[in-house]
Amino acid sequence: MHKRALGAVAVTGVAALALSACGGSSPTTPSNTGAAGTSKATTSGTPETPSGTAAPVRDANVDLVIWTDADRSKAVQKYADEFAAENGVTVKVQIATDTRTQFKDATKVGKGPDVVVGAHDWLGELVQNSTVAPVNLSSDVAGKFLPSAVAATKFNGQAYGVPYAVENIGLMYNKDLVPNPPKTMDELVATGEKLVKEGKAKQVLSQFVSKVGNAYFAYPYLSAFPEGGIFATKPNGDYDPNKLIVNTADSVKGGEVLADLGKKKILSTNVDDTNQDALFDTKAAPFMISGPWSVAKAKEAGINYGIAPLPSLTGGGAMQPFLGVQMFYVSSKAKNAALAQEFVTNYIPRKDVQLALFEVGKRPPALKEAYDEVAATDPDVKAWYEAGVDGKPMPNIPAMNSVWGPFGQATADIIAGKAGAKERLDAAAKEIAANIAKG
Amino acid sequence: MSTLNAPLPADPRLDARVEQQTGTPTPASPKRKGFGGSVWWRHALGVLALMWALFPILFIYSAATNPSGTLNTASLWPSGFSTANFTALFNDSSRPFWSWYKNSMIISFSGALVAVFIGACAAFAFSRLRFTGRRPGMMALLLTTFFPATLAIVAMYIIFAGIGDVLPAIGLNTVTGLVLAYLGGALGANVWLLKGYFDTVPRELDEAAIVDGASHARIFFTMTLRLVMPILVTVFMLVFVGLYGEFMLASVFLTDVESQTLGVGLYGMTLGNDANTLFGRFTAGALLGSIPVMLLYLAFQRQLVGGLTTGSVK
Amino acid sequence: MTKPIALAIKWVLILATMAGILWIATRLAQAGNTIAVIIAGAVGMGILAIYATRRSVPLKYLVPGLLFMILFQLWPVLYTVSLSTTNYGDGHLYSKQESVTDIVAQSVREVPNTPRYKMSVATKEGGDPTTADLVLLLTKPDGSTFVGDKTGLQPLAATGVEKTSIGKITKAPGYTVLTAKQANARSKDLSAIAVPTTDGGGIKPVGLSEAFEGRATVSYDAAADRLTDDATQPPAVYAPKDARWVNVADPSQSFPQGWQESVGLANYTRIFTDPTIRSGFVGIFIWNVAFAIASVLTTFLLGMLIALLFNDPRLRGKAVYRSLLILPYALPGFVTALVWKGMFNQDYGIINQTLGLSVDWLGTPAGAKAAILITNLWLGFPYMFIVCTGALQSIPQDVREAATIDGANAFRTLRSIIMPLLLVAVGPLLLASFAFNFNNFGLIYLLTKGGPFNGADTSIGSSDLLITYAYRLAFSGVAPNYGFAAAVSVVIFLLVALMSIPGFRRTKALEEVN
Predict the structure, then answer these.
(1) Chain C nearest CA to B281, separation (Å)
(2) What are A428-437's pLDDT values in tens digits?
(3) N or C: lower Cβ tally within 10 Å for chain C?
(4) Which of C64, C325, C333 lies closest to B53 in CB terms?
(5) A-contacting residues of C 454-483, CB under 8 Å?
(6) What is the pLDDT of residue A432?
(7) Over the stretch B236-287, which tens digit does the pLDDT of each residue have?
(8) Residue B71: which pLDDT band, with cuts at 50, 70 and 90?
(9) A123-147 confidence digits (pLDDT tens)
(10) Do C485 and B50 touch (CB under 8 A)?
């Protein structure tokens, strides 16, 4: 016990793994990220079903247990109460701190919730571990959602939940310094460098790179070129783990852009999640590539910000971000499967529910009707949506676990000038393929 | 230091101890020469040590009192004072800060108390009693602490899930279960620390008591425990702080937000985009969280460093 | 305390413990766990034998701690060791049978061009809602009503049937519609229901008010031990291989759901044969040992010096100094490690800015190592400070004061008197601290994640410890391999234990010197 003392960090082994999350992809979908997706270390659980019968940890009087994060808990609670009253049952909403891990852990030992609120890129891992159950929406209900959001809830053609929000990164710019957002990266660089020269800014762009790299933020540079990206897709639209494209000629073009921006000090491995917002919010940088999670801070700091789609790259098209979709899952080991399915299929597709969830998260709603309503009044939401309109969902296949670390590091090395784009991406491809082959 | 068959008083310290125990006044130390007996250089070094210890904390303080609450990379000095982060911290019902605080206090306090007690019992046996397997036993205790704790947490989780099926009162999501789990590590290196101190209590005191007809239990509870108070307090502190900051096991154990500890709650604030948006509140919470440890240390200071003032056995 | 009272307390405690164990044993028996009952019984008998008789005095003092240690430290460790001989990890958590069930269940797809039904769950009138066979009362989009059970779909006469506005049946003659709560209690039965239809599918409930016609595309042939997926033409056949279902025609395709199985010593063999591990081992091992030793030495020396510094009775304000000095210890380590990481930032960090440097602390091998050691010194010295302050109390005042004499003399006293005495008390803690730092995963991950890397790949980081390195290997696959990580832990444990032997000898020697 004493040793826990020596720097509480200490104990953390596992936690740190999860922490590594912050260094990874989208801040909202931390799970996937981190070097080599090590958040997996937290994976615990049991192969055997626990001895005895029903798990008594749960309150026997509760008919439906929902796990969500702290921010969304109030909105979920409201409709859980309504559902409870309508059906004459009791519903409990619990707040999970590290939902992905806790959900997997608890489900494996038979102590999990019936419904969980999470991100779509957990899906492959959850299916792999037999943790989630299919959710069969009728086609007319599914048709009311954004097609990309519905697509993201599927794995191997099977749907596993109901989406409520989409999110992606875009370009945030300081309107006081830059009246109109740049359309191309060259324009962005020119505008920014001029501002720096005039002393109005200290640097051009704030983008999360970090020493270990960030695959989520680096991906759009590759996706700006037609054949660039991480995985190619199968005919049915699923990502194909056997078709790695991180070192195709087009991906290398994206890598060259990273190298060039690194050389010009537009991108720096010294910018990471701890300072990227601060740089924008203190007006040190007129541009920031980030997502909806950065808006609240910028507002607080009194920045007159605008949101625009990511710029396009010379020789390619517009940078396309990954889409993250947030959704309601039903546990495959749910003790109250019937109520869980009922709640998820009947409540989440409702407009008022989607609007309530929008209010607490400020992400564009996944239900078209709800999106249209908020987009009419909230320019931010519209801007975020448009920044991601052509983006592809973040891969939800388990193989992505083998990508985050090596690919992220490769982009950091390219930006830092430690290696050329071609050779480094080749090496990354080799490493990723070897990781995937490990199974 | 082991008094193992050593002729008393082989250890020079024992003389001093006996003197202290028996109330013989230790002669006041002669006033030192040199810098005129002044302690200014100690203050100078002390201030230096404080600077080393505190400058990162100053950083945390500025983040906590800065309403925009980012880890503003350039400012070490607080830019004004705002309680915005503290107010936000106290008024977030989905992150019940005071419940966390309370839970942490309960868990750390009870865990540390029991850990010290069972540690002291074991140390008494290792120091005062002779039995086969004594030394290997102590080695084994130390060895158990060598296993990478990271992985055992996973097994611990599985085990407690099973325990909870049979005994819900100590299963997952219970404070009692968590305290019990912590007690698994109560022996380990702490026993060595305790035993080292126990050894310095002269055996002749025990022997005198035995002659008077006292049982081993009586010696332990009424005499030894009082004589070793400084080390008990030290170990209590160490265990308390260890448990107070522990969040890894706690975060897999306590899933309900109302039953979580400060460490788990704060750690949750560093996950995902919360790291950025909640940074101000997070640092505010961390600062407030450090207060009990400081208070505890202040309160125990006398026992920790005051020497044996309570020891008179006769 | 008089003897009778003490005796009474003792017996009350013994009886209470016995009652507790009896109760636990009863619960265990109810759960049908015979082995655990026997163990609980044995423990109870043992406790009775130890405390109720005058034999074995040492055990009376050791048992409480030992019990906890065995239950909550040794057991988890042994459990981990046992997992190290399996492929336990993501995708390999359950049995093979469960993987089949899961794959088949997840392959259910809606049959194209079939209607969605509005559904109510019911039983035949008079049936017990908790046990009676369930029937589904169904309404097609055109309003026609049906009754479905395991025999098939029958039309339901419209007379007497009451429906909600969306068409869900609330009342039907001859049937009792279950409430949501009652129906939910039958979730298991509901998920098993599939009202057979003529085209080979089955009508299955979605929640409590809708049903669809679905069909599982995957089927399991137990005799041949094959899974067949007819969603594609020709049907794909999957056979078991390496604890997974692998497509026979195209081995690159497999189902993500595998199963747990014993792999013998394969995880250990892999540690000693994996070419990546072998290539990186020596360099990482050297840094790992150096890191652990340097961390222990620096924290101990600083902690001890500060403890001695404030060990002067004449010094005023010691309480304030000491309380402030333990602040680094009072703050959660993950908080301060994050702050330190920010301070080491090359462009924006306070360290470079204050010192006017441009050192890429976290981006160069030497810088990263220095940053790690400095951070760990800061995190760890208060612990040593507290320990040394405590241990100093066991050193008599006159010896301590001798050490406060200014000048060269003090150094000699320190080296030849104070340090040896202190080491006796804290030596074992230094060993434990060494072991702990040897595996200080959290620190490395928070600061550098093992990096910087060599610029070619992420296999070997220049600040990697064995444990961070091995974990990256274990968890970077498609399915993080917990069994392998467990094996690595065991090997590292043995390594640390081996390296601690000289330390053990030394503590023993020190002890005997006195």
Answers:
(1) 12
(2) 999 999 988 8
(3) N
(4) C325
(5) 455-459, 467, 471-472, 475-482
(6) 93
(7) 988 998 898 888 788 888 878 888 888 888 888 877 666 667 788 888 898 9
(8) low
(9) 999 999 999 999 999 999 999 999 9
(10) no
Domain limits for position A301: 170-322+397-437
Nearest to C93 among A16, A17, A47 (CB): A47
The answer as to whether A298 is a domain residue is yes
Q: Is A266 on the interface with C (CB under 8 A)?
A: no
Q: Within this chain, do residues A218 and A162 fall inside the same structural domain, yes or no?
A: no
Q: Which CATH entry fits the domain spanning B94-305: 3.40.50.150, 3.40.50.720, 1.10.3720.10, 1.10.10.10?
A: 1.10.3720.10
Question: Cβ separation of B234 and C72 shorter than 8 Å?
Answer: no
Q: What integer pLDDT is reported at residue A20 of this predicted model?
A: 32
User: Per residue in C82-128, pLDDT tens?
Assistant: 999 999 988 898 999 999 999 998 999 888 888 899 999 999 988 88
Cβ atoms within 10 Å, residue C118: 20
Give the residue from B281, B282, B277, B278 showing the smallest Cα distance to B263: B282
Q: What is the pLDDT of residue A197?
A: 96
Structural domain that includes position C63: 3-83
A27 plus A123 within the same structural domain? no
ipTM: 0.86
How large is the average pLDDT for residues A380-396? 93
Whether the CB-CB separation of C103 and C218 falls below 8 Å is answered with: yes
Q: B297 to chain C: which residues are within 8 Å by CB?
A: 322-323, 326
Q: Alpha-carbon distance C150 to C61, whole Å?
A: 64
CATH number of the domain where residue C353 is located: 1.10.3720.10
Number of B to C CB contacts under 8 A, please give it. 342
Q: Do A2 and B239 touch (CB under 8 A)?
A: yes
Query: Tens of pLDDT along C384-439?
Result: 998 888 777 777 666 656 555 555 566 777 777 778 878 877 888 888 899 889 98
B212/C81 Cα distance (integer angstroms): 51
- Choose among A134, A398, A431: nearest Cβ to C108: A134
In degrees, to the nearest 5, what angle opens at C-alpha A181 toward C-alphas A180 and A182? 115
Cβ atoms of A106 and B251 within 8 Å: the answer is no
Greater confidence (C463 vs A37) lies with C463
